[in-house]
Specification:
With 199 residues, the protein is mainly α. It contains 9 helices and no strands. It starts with 15 loop residues before the first helix and ends with a helix. Keywords: DNA-binding, DNA-directed RNA polymerase, Sigma factor, Transcription, Transcription regulation.
Length: 199
């Protein structure tokens, strides 16, 4: 009988340890929870590398197929999301190597199409104009992120957008923490320069 502790599609009542256990048992609901919980975040990670929306979607689908096949080998040495990020990075880089000659640099950002609504602060009246300006700023920032060198861009996406720690990023990318800090510093410096020119 299927475990009924998974009470909602969003998996709000399922902690990571229990989710991993259910995944290893092959529970269909657990995989639906996994996709619902992490798909959007992994799309951002993949897009940060390949800069292609459609390819990112396909890559993340491949990530979940890989997880389905390899979850039994996951030992829990890192957070589940860190493991997912590592798989996503590897598949994204593999795609870039395979399709390097055909790689296109004209693309559109996930954030520009599907950014969440801006939250109103307690001391601010939210109007269509302020929403437009903030959405426009967000689009400018994402466009600037796309101009970063790949290594700096990936670290920036993982740290700033996905809020991974330096240690988690180092683990996912197989680099030293000092290298993570250096690439993040480079990314922020370049972004500041790009945004200053646009302003």
């Amino acid at each position: 009988m299927e475990n009924e502790t998974i009470k909602s599609p969003a998996g709000l009542n399922l902690d990571e340890k229990h989710l991993i256990k259910e995944l290893k048992l092959g529970r269909e609901k657990a995989f639906r929870v996994l996709v619902d919980r992490y798909q959007r975040r992994l799309l951002k990670v993949s897009y940060g590398i390949v800069l292609e929306e459609e390819e990112s979607l396909e890559i993340v689908q491949d990530v979940f197929v890989t997880v389905y096949r390899q979850i039994g080998s996951f030992r829990g040495d890192s957070r589940l999301f860190t493991w997912l990020v590592k798989i996503t990075i590897n598949l994204s880089l593999n795609w870039k190597r395979r399709w390097k000659r055909r790689f296109r640099w004209s693309h559109s950002s996930f954030e520009a199409h599907d950014a969440p609504p801006v939250r109103a602060s307690e001391n601010r009246i939210e109007t269509p104009e302020t929403l437009y300006r903030e959405r426009e700023l967000e689009a400018d920032i994402m466009a600037a992120v796309e101009t970063l060198p790949e290594k700096a861009r990936v670290v920036f996406v993982l740290n700033t957008l996905e809020e991974l720690s330096y240690g988690e990023i180092a683990q996912a990318l197989d680099i030293k923490i000092g290298t993570v800090k250096s690439r993040l510093f480079q990314a922020r410096k370049l972004l500041t320069a790009v945004l200053a020119q646009e302003g």
